[in-house]
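Bug report (template v2)

What were you trying to do?
Predict the complex of my protein with 4'-deoxy-4'-aminopyridoxal-5'-phosphate.

What happened?
Run completed; filing so the output is reviewed.

Input:
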Amino acid sequence: MAGEVSWLSERARRIQPSPTLAIDSMAKAMRAEGKDVINFGVGEPDFDTPDNIKEAAFRAIKEGFTRYTPSSGIPELKEAIIEKLEKDNNLLYSKDEIIVSCGAKHSLYNIAQALFDKDDEVIIPVPYWVSYPEQVALNDAKPVFVKTHEENSFILKPEALRECITKKTKALILNSPSNPTGTVYTKKALEAIAEICLRHNVFIISDEIYEKLTYDGNKHISIASLNEEIKKRVIVVNGISKAYAMTGWRIGYAAGPRELVRAMAAIQSQSTSNPTSIAQKAAVEALKGPQDSVQRMVEEFDRRRRFIVNELRSIPGISCIIPAGAFYVFPRIDGLFGKRYAGYMIENSSALSMYLLKEVFVATVPGSAFGDDRYIRLSYATSMDNIKRGLQRIREAIERLR
Ligand code: PMP
Ligand code: GLU
């Protein structure tokens, strides 16, 4: 265990591995042992990367586009990102305000490196995506958690935000559509947050990676697009992993104030250098090519979303709100706490996730990984057949509890 090795850096001893990726590895290892595991753990589209995008990558290889590129991304891709931000988000940026990184996770990490100093406070609404607190802490800043509530669709309330701002507050990390809750912020909610952040000089890190995945007429709005003043205080993070089923290609990007982008580019030039040349060419095609595959994915996710929510709601002890975006459901499970079966005692979300994995081979992520132990997360980025079989197993496992 890193925690027991005294010669490791304090930082290394503090860091926890990503629980979402850890559960995915565990599920895959069990599958390799021949167990029929149904994986609702990791959030990655089960669709294949569209052919036109793959073709662009083949072309790049054949044409010998296999060398270092400018460290912060090729101009062609920055132009495609600029066009996308204008078309989809009504945001105008120039090339020196854009940086391409090795996934949105890497963009977020570069931001943390470029923005946070020791003891800076960074506000993170709970439930949060697993990597935010760790990235903040890795950069010696302090995560400040602010609770959001299911009754309010997990939207951060202005009063709650105001209450946790201090002189040390540097930034707020906002994630809409949200992982794990699926919350899509309304314009009104964003306006209230923007106003407070402007007044208190708080940066907004706006993680918009799930922007294309919204349902029931909900539409993603970038907080940076509200007005010119707020745009100066927002760094928008986005990428191609989720919208184009390209998790393994590792391309993400950020758009924001040029001084911040310049600092991120310097950090990147000293750490990873450029994101993969071939993947950058594929990303140009993803952003500029036909978009019909996105629409098809959204329709399929929507069908699964409705099914999974209805099934979960019919299991005694579980309640579940219908998420407006992303591809996760976040059912409330604390109604099962205190119940037992065989050697299992369901005392918290981890115990429930472990029980489901060991007893019926269904992988989920405990809510504790997202800062709220009363829930678990299921990703429905898996086939309808898996969803049906997986939900049947969950039902049976929960019915066994006494
Ligand atoms: N932000 C959120 C909220 C996510 O769920 C993910 C998922 N991996 C990322 C960022 C990072 O995406 P990627 O690094 O694959 O672009
Ligand atoms: N973001 C996805 C998830 O939350 C992928 C895993 C990760 O990057 O942590 O499951």
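What did the reviewer find?
The longest strand covers residues 169-175. The mean pLDDT is 96.
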